[in-house]
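Office hours follow-up: a student asked to see two folded examples consecutively, so here they are.
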Amino acid sequence: MSRDARWQALLELLVERGRLDVEEAAAELAVSAATIRRDFDQLAEQQMLVRTRGGAVVHGVSYELPLRYKTARHASEKQRIAKAVANLVAPGEAVGLTGGTTTTEVARALAVRSDLASGSPALTIVTNALNIANELAVRPQFKIVLTGGVARPQSYELVGPLADGVLGQITLDVAVLGVVALDVAHGAAATDEAEAAINRLLCERAERVIVAADSSKLGQRAFALICSAESVDTLVTDVAVSEDMVRRFEEAGVTVVAV
């Protein structure tokens, strides 16, 4: 296992459990205790965790795993979801993309669509995600509009009043949301209130709203509301979603696509 893969695995275990000891982590990853101690020390230097006697704990009270350290958890599901979302976008449309691992996959799926290989523009992409803009900027057939704002290192998303000014002057055909949680009663949500505010503006400027979320995020709650479930036109998720969950979303007026 490479160092980067170990670090990703260690950070995900910390997010899930809140605390890890050296021996436990070494057994989980099938490496030596000395390797884990070294990994913990290096991650502590980056302020990704707090070193304790014999182990480590998550950094801070509220912990969000930075995008660059998120592994391909539910990777195949996210790729299927992304392809299905991309197929709901028509050539020539203006598309808003929020940040996140699933929406990054949506951007990649749009980039390889053969019917979007040319056009003036083939698509207009509006995003507050630096990594998405960076990936799509090399596609000359896409018009890329990047909102202003202050970059959050965790997610590469731009937030704040500078982004508000740009989004207040545009209209979108579709907004594609990556979310931390989506619940019929509590709506779509993020962990950070500044990101949620920008995502909310993207929804308000769009003719239709698509949420791209694997089934592990459904029926969950998170701190910062983006929009109500009734504001979502289409949910694209994976086939592990329960029939009861599908029924409840459909009763709320959401079209559910399971792939």
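And the second, which I mentioned at the end of office hours:
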Amino acid sequence: MRSSNPVFSRRGFSRDNGAYAGFGTQQPQAQAGTATNPYATNPYATDPATGMPQAPVRGNAMTIDDVVSRTALTLGTVILTAAISWIALPVDPANINTSYGIAIGAALIAFVFAMIQSFKAKPVPALILAYAAFEGVFLGVISSAVSTYIDAGPSTVVQAVMGTMCVFAGVLFAYKMRWIRVNRRFVGFVMAAAVGFMLLMVVNLLFSVFAGGDGLGFRSGPLGILFGVIGILLGAAFLAMDFKMVEDGVAYGAPREESWLAAFGLTMTLVWIYMEMLRLISILKGD
């Protein structure tokens, strides 16, 4: 079983003698480089003489501060480019086609950068920040469109941002209190639900392209509200899985570079939650 975020798919959620890395009988006290350490197989955490996995240098291990600082930088890039695109690419009748074209192009470029980083053995900060920058352009234009055509003001966007922050804070609190336990069953259920959700959204998109309108109606009306709530709940579950990966990385002494992957994964999940929140609030406001 692997994490919902492709940036974590090579780490943590893999079978190890019938258990899952970071779960089951493994204990946080396990030393890096042992068979039960999910980070022991990092290609850049090996002994140069023997080629065998070893614990990273103590001063080079990932810490919570590393994750926080990298996440702040990545999210800050998203927010900055979103604000710039909101101002520089106004979504009005005179510029709407140009703005939407740039937004779609930015989204595709961000997707390409995300996929390239996902298949790399090591994190590349430049790729991660580039993803954040282009994702910000996309979010800025979409947010501007919602603000312009739904409520003639930024209230919907502000509500979506506040909602995303509340989901993040709520999941973090529930995770720290151990009300949410990310185990093998939890991951399996979330991944199955995510696959089903994405397949339905793809089918709905295809119907909307060829039949017009909102396709099967999964993104508007009562069904749109239901699927918006499901999307937010899935995002919350992804957050819990991301928190587990960060916790395991710190506990098992993952290399400091892994903090960039943690920031990347958290940013992807928060973008998902924001988009679902924005869509849900828009539907609730009657458009």
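Two things to take away from it. DSSP finds seven helices and two strands in the chain. Residues 1-35, 40-46 have pLDDT under 50 and may be disordered.
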